[in-house]
Structures are given as C-alpha cells and as structure tokens.
Amino acid sequence: MPEPAAYDERLRVPLRWWALATLFWASVLVAFLVATPVWVAVATTAALVVAGGGVLVGYGSARLRVGDGVLVAGRARIPVAELGEAEPLHRESMRLLAGREADVRAYLLLRPYLRRGVRVDVVDRGDPTPYWLLSTRHPDRLAQALASAREDASRLSLGRHQPGAGG
C-alpha cells in the first residue's frame, strides 16, 4: 500500500479567474439575447461555459506531489534520489529564474497566478535537465518535503548496500 504523500498540492486557478469568466459568459448571453432567438443565445452561451470551464479546470488540474520516493509535477515524475537541493523561491527570484536567467533545458511547471516556487536541482548525470522549476503556493513546505524525502531515500539506499542489511 502506498505511503501517504509528504506533500500534495493541486495548482487550481484562482477564484478571480472564475469570476471573470462568469462575467464574460453573462456578457455573451446578454449580447446574444439582444441579437438572436433565446434558444440560440442559451445554446451558444452554454457551449462557451462548457468549453471555458473545461479549459480552467484542465489548466488548474496540475498537481505537485512528493510521496513514495517520487516527485510528481504535472505529468512528469522523477525519483527523489535523483534530486539535489530544493530552493524555495519568492517573487523576484522566481521571476528572474522563469525569465531572464532560465535554462532552456530545465523542466518548468509554471502558473502565472502563482508568483512563488521551488527550484529543484537534478543530480542524475544521465539526465540532461539541470533543474525543475515549479510554481507552488507553499515553496517552503515543498522544499522541506523534498529534503525529507531525499534523506529517507538515501537512508534506504545505504541500508540496502551495507553487508548484512536487508534480508
């Protein structure tokens, strides 16, 4: 049975995006009610609500998870044993690293509504990715969860390689 996640966060879109979308849909409905039959206005607005809602839900479904010795960021996964230091980044350092100081080989999971994040170095020599840059609402908690998971992974790997260990 998998262990509970040390860290789990879904990068949902903020409520203000939903509010703006709702106002847009209401405006479309009113504009169509004035110019078209009611059924056309309602059908068109309903289609826009379904499509727009799907986009917002899909974009906000990205997940950060640390558990079972793995970091999951969106669709990407990497064992924590292949990771180095995790550095919490706040506004300015995140902006610089996501922009002017970015490395094109880095793995990025960025959300424009999250201005903080974590940079996680990749220490696997076979991996061309130098680091992962992840948007998060809780950079300190994510960095701490990664540090703890890395310590646990190194303890387990040391225990497997010592004579007489295991079974």
Q: What would your notes on this structure say?
A:
With 167 residues, the chain is α+β, with helices and mostly antiparallel strands. It folds into two domains: 11-59; 63-161, PH-domain like (Roll), CATH 2.30.29. It is built from four helices and eight strands, in the order βααββββαβββα. It has helices spanning 15-35, 38-59, 91-98, 139-161; strands at 7-10, 63-67, 70-73, 76-79, 83-89, 107-109, 117-122, 131-135. A four-stranded antiparallel sheet has the order 1-2-3-4. α1 (15-35) runs antiparallel to α2 (38-59). The longest helix is centred in the last third of the chain and has 23 residues, at 139-161. The protein starts with 6 loop residues before the first strand and ends in a 6-residue tail after the last helix. The model has no long low-confidence stretch (mean pLDDT 91).
User: What is the rounded distance between the termini?
Assistant: 20 Å
Label the structural class.
Answer: alpha+beta
Q: Helical segment tally?
A: 4
Overall pLDDT level: 91
Number of domains: 2
CATH topology type of the largest domain: PH-domain like
Poorly predicted regions: none
Described by its quaternary structure, the protein is: single chain
- What would you report as the Rg, rounded to the nearest angstrom? 22 Å
What is the H-and-E element order? EHHEEEEHEEEH
The helicity comes to 40-55%
Number of strands: 8
CATH architecture title of the largest domain: Roll
The largest sheet has its strands arranged as 1-2-3-4
Any idea of the CATH class of the largest domain?
Mainly Beta
Strand content: 15-25%
Describe the sheet with the most strands.
4 strands, antiparallel
